[in-house]
Amino acid sequence: MPIGRPRRLNAEKCQEICRLVAAGHSFAAVARAMGCNVKTIRRHADFDPQFQRRLEAAAIVARSSPLQVIRRAAQTNPQAAAWLRERTGQRSPRR
Hints:
Elements: H1 11-22, H2 27-34, H3 38-47, H4 49-74, H5 78-88
């Protein structure tokens, strides 16, 4: 029989947290949606290394998603291509 309070974040909530973080939501917004504090999420990540890895992977996905959209748009849209070249320091191809 476990001693102490049950954990606020169960497996389903952890999965939903990772999904929301991957979608680009801030930790504060995710915590509000889950009905807890940001500290609760961070504390649970410290307690559960697997959750911490999934949370870090979700944050990486969130950061890379907008760049992937711009890269796809740059293939057909000259403005998107120019924007991408400006931000990444790539030179325009010679004609």
